[in-house]
Known about the structure:
Strand content: 5-15%
Number of strands: 8
Distance between the termini: 54 Å
Radius of gyration: 37 Å
Largest sheet: 5 strands, mixed
Amino acid sequence: MARALFHRRRGYSRLSRTANRLWACRHCDERHTLDTIYSVEATSSASSHLERKHRITPSPATTESSESDVFRPAKRARYASVVEVSEIRELLVGHIVNADRPFSVFTERYLAEIFRRFEPSLASQIPWNRTSQRRQLQAIFASKKVLVKESMTAAISRIHLAFDLWTSGNNFAIMAVSGHFLNRKGIQQQRLLALARHQGDHSGDNLAATLVRVAEDWGITDRIGTLVSDNATNNDTCTTSFFSSINPCFTLQDTVDRRMRCYGHILNLVGRAFLRGEDDDVFEEESQRDSAAPGAQALASDLGGWRAHGPVGKLRNIVKFIRSSPQRSEAFQQLAKEADSEDNWLLHQESKAELRLTLSNDTRWNSTYLMIERALQKKSHLQSFLLQRQVSGDGQIPLEAHLTGDDWLVLVELKAVLEPLYRQTMLCQGWGEKGSQGYLWEVLSGLEYLLDKMEAWRIFFDTPSDEDIEQSQRYLLQQSQRTHRPRRGRAARARSPELNTQALPSHVQQEYSQGQVPTAVRLAALPSSARDHIRISVTTAWQKLNQYYTKLGASPLFAAAIILHPGRGVRWLEARWDSGDQLEWLRDAKEGLESFWIAWYRDTTPGSQPRPSSNEGRPPAKRSYSEYDDWMAMDLQRLQARSSEATEIERYLRLELPIPDVDPIEWWLEHKQQFPSLSRLALDLFSIPAMAADCERAFSLAKLTLTSQRLSMDPETLEMAQCLKNWIRRDAIMVGGIFFSPAAGLSEETML
């Protein structure tokens, strides 16, 4: 054996084409003097070569060995422990789930050979076929589900369910159910609980039956706080039926209180109303603005035509024309690169040549916003491309279908109107951190912000006054004179020469121009018809926004989340709702919070001990008492009794709020002793998501798994794979002894 090891260390062995074993000297190869390859049949030849040419001989302890010993594997067969094999099998399933690989991936010829060569003995102990991997998926899913259940049992808040429906690629109705809660450290958590097959119609009662099955399977029927879903009417029925099933004592109002409307869906409806919505009341109101205005039906027809063939319609047709042909796309990109290369100095902005045009679709309103935003970024490229094709005689896009200067002005205004909606969607669709971005308290404040913006746009696009027109004319005259005024030599100071913005590249002229264009100028520059169309669209969007703003009042929890946020407080609502009917909203918000707290959270155990008086331990002053002193003592007793009877809500509302830059969850955890029952309500509220966007994410990830080659996958397997993927990526479980994120801690505290 020692001789075999000696030869193996001093050379290489390979199998020739004739199936003969050959040996080559390592030392000769490293010195580039290799001129002879020896046959294994003559093992003495290799020894003679080493001794003769390199003066290397085996140690005296070397014993004779057979020819086959030279090529025997270097390591003894190693048999892994049960724990090690279990972890490896978990890692294999983790790879299949996380990378969306087929169950047969490890039987692929070359991958299997890699495993065999690196650790042949270990490879023989693990089943690699697709049936074994699927069986292992079932076992791992069952074991990890127990851990996720334990983490939810340890939650310090109620568990809020977000749900949505999806039709899979293999034509199954699938319901995604996601759980949101605070772990025992007060960190917001999200877990995909089910991607369950939904059978039957989509009535509210039938949806509730599927939800109840999921809740019972997880054993959380007594821990559920609220349901978050889109604004479909069947979800109203579903919420009522669901809570009535898990708690027959619930009244209709109890279920309405717990029906949380998805903020993202509200934003989607408002965006669609602006771009494509029609409201008969708005058309009627618009027709009555002017006696010469057309009737409501004519306005509706005119608006529809403008949306289809106006600036947005033109832009969509142009983008679709460019993107529908690889040759046109390539020509457009080449033109953009050439245009940017001519401006080889960029002051503060990256090149836009590599940006691709974005095409809108009919299902998502924000795709239209992104199309307009990208087109404005590449305006000069689009104009150059269309001009080039017009000059070349290519009449595929007629001149009347080109975007005019007025069209570009309209696109700028459309982007400005849609931008707040888009920013709110992006802000609240994620999982919040430290009580911000994506949780319940942002819904009401976000709608207030958007209502302010929409009301401002309605005023902005109204008919300009004579004063506005005169102001715009004066501004345009001044700009004209400034632009064409001749330069008279060098400026007096070399440090501050006069800046000629016309000499700058077009993409930076606006940033370096003197001042900002007045609002009246922007308004007057728009064609009157476009201004009217935008005003109608803004009013339609405002109506939709106001409709759902009103619906939020059905549940006291939206306003309660604002009141119990120490960075907002009731003073934020008082500042917003300060007149007329708004004062009633404020009263209802306070009463709704108190009623909900009394019904579901007020501690039934004896209250906290009364605080010691400030005079405790101080000897009483020696003085003679009179009738007046007795009267004052009685008054003091009444005040002390009233103070001790003050509820937690009353004591909270007396605090000096708001507190800037505060984490609401951390604040309530620190004040649990002061507000024992109110803090439980607050923590429950701050674990409610603003949107059901995590269900949409689950569907998007499921599409990556359920490719056209895997449509035979049954819904149960898809559910196990997607739930495990969510738990892995949220670092809720360890797979193979490791977390998915390298930064995740390995302690039980992190998991719970």
